[in-house]
Amino acid sequence: MAPEEDAGTELLLQSFERRFLAARALRSFPWQSLEAKLRDSSDSELLRDILQKPSGGSVTLSESTAIISHGTTGLVTWDAALYLAEWAIENPAAFTDRTVLELGSGAGLTGLAICKMCRPRAYIFSDCHSRVLEQLRGNVLLNGLSLEADITANLDSPRVTVAQLDWDVTTVRQLSAFQPDVVIAADVLYCPEAIVSLVGVLRRLAACREHQRAPEVYVAFTVRNPETCQLFTTELGRAGIKWEAEPRHDQKLFPYEEHLEMAILNLTL
Questions:
Q1: Residue 241's closest CA among 211, 210, 209, 199?
Q2: Partners of 265 in the beta sheet?
Q3: β-strand partners of 220
Q4: Which candidate, 189, 205, 194, 211, places its Cα nearest to that of 241?
Q5: What is the pLDDT of residues 37-65, one digit of tens each?
């Protein structure tokens, strides 16, 4: 074999090894021998950082291979969902023993990470697209969690619900049934219409807990267009919803390629 062919084969094998490593079930890794080899490798910073982290539950997802599928972008995981999931893992007390409502759950990665790592009392995944809801239910079951109606549900796991929720038509009465302590959303600020609808549903969430403490709200988003972000803050101001930016946390699990931010909202109107 010619030297250039030999080098090409070596690169191909290295690429396969990395891809195979990423696809293997975490519990099947020979951790000690892998860590020893990775320490001597010149391109292993990310993998070494992951290996040195405390081990926890893994999340398995069924996703679309297309960014847009069945007329929606909700069948794939976006960077803001990864960002919020990592923040949640670093701040589990925000969710422990609490009822969490997620708006626009998409593929479900953030919620599944919270259910497995943060021990919420109950978790409500929500979306409005029928295909997204179908995939969400499948991903919940794929990760060993039970839906609320399942009489065989594990009592040590949170009560999990997948709810159809259209922000434009849902009522205060419907939202009151959820009684969330925490509301989260990731990558839902993608167009002006979605922003107006989101702020509208947040106002109704504030109204449905008139005599109780308003839920805490965390919204993670990708800064693709500064004008879109400005519209979000403008609409929050019009609705009388106060907010503050959460200090950016260091990327440790995921190599984000975009500018990500997270806002903490105060729904006490």
A1: 199
A2: 217, 243
A3: 186, 262
A4: 205
A5: 666 666 555 455 544 444 456 777 766 55
- Rg value, the chain, Cα: 21
Q: In what order do the strands lie in the sheet with 122-127?
A: 159-164, 122-127, 99-103, 182-186, 216-222, 260-266, 242-245
Q: Which two tokens stand for residue 93?
A: 């007390």
**Measured between alpha carbons, how far is 101 from 88 in angstroms, rounded to an integer?**
14
Q: Dihedral angle at the C-alpha atoms of 126, 258, 95, 152, nearest 10 degrees?
A: 50
The Cα angle at residue 75 between residues 69 and 76, in degrees rounded to 5: 110
Share of the chain residues as helix, strand and coil, in percent rounded to the nearest 5: 40, 15, 40
Q: Does the pTM of the predicted model rise above 0.85?
A: no
pLDDT in tens, 156-182: 779 999 999 999 999 999 999 999 999
The structure tokens listed for 267 are: 């729904």
Task: Report the alpha-carbon distance of residue 56 to residue 41 in Å, rounded.
Answer: 25
Strands 182-186 and 242-245: unpaired
In terms of Cα–Cα distance, which of 14, 66, 81, 59 is closest to 41? 14
Q: What is the DSSP string of 110-169?
A: HHHHHHHHS--SEEEEEES-HHHHHHHHHHHHHTT--BTT-TT--TTSPEEEEEE--TTT
106 closest CA partner among 141, 82, 142? 82
Instruction: Count how many Cα atoms sit within 13 Å of the Cα of residue 88 in the half-sphere of its side chain.
Output: 31
CB-based burial, 19-44: b 16+ in 10 Å, e otherwise: eeeeeeeeeeeeeeeeeeebeeeeeb
Q: Count of CB atoms within 10 A of residue 166's CB?
A: 13
Judged by DSSP in three states, 84 sits in helix
